[in-house]
Write a structure and sequence with these properties.
This protein is an alpha+beta fold. It has helices at about 5-15, 55-65, 150-160; strands at about 30-40, 45, 50, 65-70, 70-75, 80-85, 90-100, 105-110, 115, 125-130, 135-140, 145-150, 160-165, 170-175, 180-185. A six-stranded mixed sheet has the order 3-2-1-6-5-4.
Length: about 190
Amino acid sequence: MIVKPLAEGLDAVRAAAKKGLPPVHLWHPPFCGDIDMRIARDGTWFHEGSPIGRMPLVKLFSSILRLEEGKYFLVTPVEKVGIVVDDAPMLAIDFEVEGTGTAQVLRFFTKTEDEVVANAENPIRVARDAATGEPAPYVHVRAGLEALIDRKSFYRLVDLGVHHAVAGQDWFGLWSGGSFFPIIPSLELA
């Protein structure tokens, strides 16, 4: 069943958003069905097949996104609707580096203007396509939501990579926020 979201729910979200991210984790409204909304792998939001061109609206929607049991929902105080996410719900389009070595800190910026420092609470992970071996890097942003790290940023990250032993095996990876994030076993780079 496809439903239309209620305007009153979005009004409550706008009011909450003025104070920072809305407290989506505190809202437990009834599930109202799925809406025809999709987030493409490149971070573009679509509604009924058309891209949403108003960035403030996309930012508002991204602020009320919640992941539950592998499914994505937009949640307001009065309703919860399902949406489709092709890969990750966010896209990291840039990052800054502070410090070096084990004191290095990587701060990521998403297309929806979220900022996150990679650390133990917000790890970087790299999934590899089983057929091609192509890496897909992600950084945790908040509440189980990840951002796919775009290609240009990933290439820049690789330039910062170092080798480090993890559980008796040498890995090529990245330091940030006091944590080491493995990308690929060092032996596979030879």
